[in-house]
Each structure stands twice: as structure tokens, then as C-alpha cells.
Amino acid sequence: MFTRGSKLFFGLGVSAYLAAVVYGVITNGLATGGVLDQLSGAGAVNAVLGPLSFGYKGGVGDHVGYTMLMAFAATCVGLGIAAVAFRDGDPEALAELANSASIPPVSEPNDLSAWPVVAAFSAALMTVGLATGPALFVVGAGLLAVAAFEWTVKTWSEQATGDPEVNAVIRARFMHPVEVPVGALALIGILIFCASRIFLTVSKLGAVWAGIALLVLFFGGGVLLASVLGKFPERRRAIIAGTLAVGAVLMLGLGIASAINGERKIEPHETEHSGAQSSAPSNATGAYS
Hints:
By secondary structure, this protein is mainly α. It folds into two domains: about 1-90; about 115-265. It is about 80% helix and about 0% strand. The chain has helices at about 5-30, 35-40, 45-50, 65-85, 90-95, 115-130, 135-160, 165-200, 205-230, 235-260, 270-289. Helix 8 runs antiparallel to helix 9.
């Protein structure tokens, strides 16, 4: 019933769940006066039931570490279920399930995948977010989830049939209705966020020059890209993907550096109404004197 891959994932899931329970008991005990005192006192049952029940019957201690371990456990269990459902992608098992005497053809991956690089960059972005603020951490977590999903779909589509062209069509029909709108919105949101960090870090005059530089960079890059595509139409896809990747990395790098540097000190502006209110008592005092 259980395949070799599912046994690995289920074992990792159970281990991560038990590690989360132990971590929750220990950190909760340290926060309430001691682990041994809590386990030997009246709240021993709740101290254990809390991590076991995901916090429903008691505390879980450090929420960040507990949540990360539980998320890892849930992910491993999900991967284990997928491995059981697809029988580890074994062609012989698939042929047996399909009641076929011949093994279906399976093609090997024929191109490189950029999603492992995106996943590594997302993990690094989450690490930076732990030191700077929750915004970068959330962005990194979102990119990591997208990279994991895209990587999984790419691997599945490359082994759907024995024809690479058919596999590409299957992936395009499945992912393009989601990738195009969601990717465009995500890219626009990331660019806006990074630009805002840059504008808030530099001085008031520097923000104006930074905006002009970004406009010139976008316009000049578009003109240069159009001219290059006219000369090399057969490499259009690779050129566009490389240009977008370089621009995204550049904007993300500037945004991260600006977020680490912090926002500039913005002086509050006094309005005429507040100035009139502040001068009114002095005038009244002069009239009475």
C-alpha cells in the first residue's frame, strides 16, 4: 500500500510533529517557571495536550518555532499522500492501475528549471525579513510557496506523457490562466513596494532623482529590449525572461537594502490652522495686559 517515497515523507511528517510537540512543551515550560515544575504540577495535562491539540487545550510555547515544525509536518504528510496516490510515478505501477500490458512511455526532463533558484532566493529573503521586518518575511514566504507549486507542476507535466511537446501543451493549459494574471499582479506589487522603500530611505530631493532614474531606466530598457528583439526574434523568449529576471533582482536588491537602512526622518509640517491657534493665547495675553 505504502510506496518507498510515501514512507519517507510520512516518517518525516511524524518526526516533525513529535518535534513540534516536544518544542512546545519545553518552550511553554520555560515561559511559565520551569519545564519540570509544569510537568509535575497541576497543569501537566494541559502542558502536553496544548501542543498535541495545536493549542486548543493549552499553550504551545514559542509560536514561531511550533508553527514552522507543524507546517513542515503537514507538508510532508501531504507529499506522502501524493506519493501514495501517484505510486511514486512508477511506470509499472501506472500500467497495472490502467490495466495495460505495456508500460507507458515516460520522458526525462529536457530543460533546466529556475524554480530551485527562486526557492533558495525566497528562503534568503525570509531570513532577511526575520532581521528587518515582517514585510520581507511575508514576501519571501509567498515566493517560496509559488516556487514550490511551480516546481511541482513542472516536474509533473514533464512526465505526463512521452511526448515533450504534448507535455508543454498540458502545462500551458493548466498554468497559464493562473500564471499570467497572478504573476502580473505580484510583479507590480513587488515593484511598488521596492520603489516605496527606496523613496522613503533617500532624502526628499533624492527621492525625486530616484524617480527620474527609474523612469529613464524603464523607458531606456524598453527601447533597448525592443531593438534587441528585432535583431534576434528567434531568441525572444530567452531575452525577455533574462531581462525581467535582471530587472527584478535589481529592484529587489535595492528594496532590501533600503528596507535594512530604514526610513528617513520626516519632519512634521505645521499648518496655518495650528499656527493661528498657537499665536492666539499670546495675543489674548497682550490685550489683557
